[in-house]
Amino acid sequence: MKYRSILLFGAPGSGKGTQGKILGAIPHFFHCACGDVFRNLRPDSPLGKVFLEHSSQGELVPDQPTIELWRQCIETSTKIGRFHPGEDTLVLDGIPRNVPQAEMLSDTLEVVAMFYLTSSRENLVARMQRRAIKDNRLDDANLDVIRLRLKTYEKETKPVINFYGKKLIHRVNTDQSPVKTFFDILKHVVKLH
Ligand code: ADP
């Protein structure tokens, strides 16, 4: 069975997490942020260590363990009754993050829409720097790592846009307030139901 899914896509700091949390609060939407799944690992576990090694350098975690961890998280959420695959729409944030991941998930996801969140570089950087303190995010604490993260996004993540194609993509500007961004997203989401 394929999971009906909405993808939140965009550079680090573009507001995927903020919008994902709001959407996930609506009945029959289930928000899953891949970065949160990694941050919930014990830092001294084998994969927790791999995550810290890569994220502190602004790099992506290798694909195989990422997809495995994500599948486990979805299966556990299903078992404990937080996610109901038949009735709920998955709101994915931070995954797939490169073309190989999109390919690995092609038999698992039925993507019904992709929201491409765009923001000025100044806003992206400012949000990451704010978040570093508020959410204790090591990967956002250092301007050099922020630059590397933006580079990784341009090189590895952006090509995912072409994988899903124009029909599914809705471009939303996130230089505006979160509530206006949400309004722009919701205008499309209501049509999917
Ligand atoms: P942001 O919200 O800034 O886009 P995330 O919280 O989604 O950041 O991700 C933080 C870090 O976790 C990434 O820089 C990367 O190292 C790792 N990560 C998250 N999702 C993935 C993924 N799908 N594939 C590989 N690495 C990932």
- Compute the number of helices: 9
Mean pLDDT: 96
**Strand order across the largest sheet:** 2-3-1-4-5
Residue fraction in strands: 15-25%
Cα-atom radius of gyration: 16 Å
Bound molecules: adenosine-5'-diphosphate
Unreliable residue runs: none
Report how far the terminal alpha carbons are from each other. 19 Å
Strand element count: 5
What are the key terms here?
globular; binds adenosine-5'-diphosphate; single chain; five-stranded parallel β-sheet; 193 residues; alpha/beta
Write the layout of secondary structure elements.
Blueprint: E1 3-10, H1 16-24, E2 29-33, H2 34-39, H3 46-55, H4 63-79, E3 89-93, H5 99-104, E4 109-118, H6 121-134, H7 143-157, H8 160-164, E5 169-173, H9 178-192
Parallel strand pairs: 1-3, 1-4, 2-3, 4-5
The chain binds adenosine-5'-diphosphate.
Give a verbal description of the structure.
By secondary structure, the chain is of the alpha/beta class. It has nine helices and five strands; from the N terminus they run E-H-E-H-H-H-E-H-E-H-H-H-E-H. It has helices at about 15-25, 35-40, 45-55, 65-80, 100-105, 120-135, 145-155, 160-165, 180-190; strands at about 5-10, 30-35, 90-95, 110-120, 170-175. Bound molecules: adenosine-5'-diphosphate. Adenosine-5'-diphosphate (ADP) binds next to helix 1, helix 2 and helix 3.
